[in-house]
Amino acid sequence: SVYNATEGGRIPDAIHDARQGAASPPVATLATAILQRLEAGGEIHVKANSQGAIHLRHALDQVRATLSSRLAPAALAQSLNHIRVETAGGAEARWPDGPRYVHYVNLRDPVPKRAGVLSKGAYPGAGAVLATFSDFDFDPLEPKYRFVGPLSRRFVGVHGFGIYHRHRQPFDLLYAHSQPGTVQTISLDGQAAAGS
User: Fold this and answer.
1) Is 103 in contact with 92 (CB distance < 8 Å)?
2) Which listed residue, 6, 60, 72, 188, has the most CB atoms within 10 A of its CB?
3) Tens digits of per-residue pLDDT, 153-177?
């Protein structure tokens, strides 16, 4: 688990993180952890919410660059395929090919539409699955632990941890919809959560 200390995921925090790019401490920590797991011959499952997706994308770029200098193309593709990535309301639009992706998108959440996998020019990664739903959390988790003003309360109702967690499905169940080289969108509306 990598913790990125912020002032609650504010827009200035996300802008700062995007500008830091690969130089941010969470990126180095993630890249190191991913490389260590892959070099040990294992798989790794990484999850990122909101601005955490910015760090994760930069870490995956570093991992890809490091491995591409060491491995032949076929071995590189095989190694990257051992990375399973889940994002929830991610504030990152462009993802490198290789890992297996499931991107959760609340269609009422402005973040994936403006900065994430639904934004103009987005590239969710080859074979990615976009798991979409439209929902609002009337009792979000965030105000129980810190002050959240009225506008922020509406925002966490569509973008908070709880709303995305409510719709999470087992990775392999969703990724089974993947098609090589294309992005598949599946609707989770009307489905009961199958757990994790």
Assistant:
1) no
2) 60
3) 899 999 999 999 999 999 999 999 9
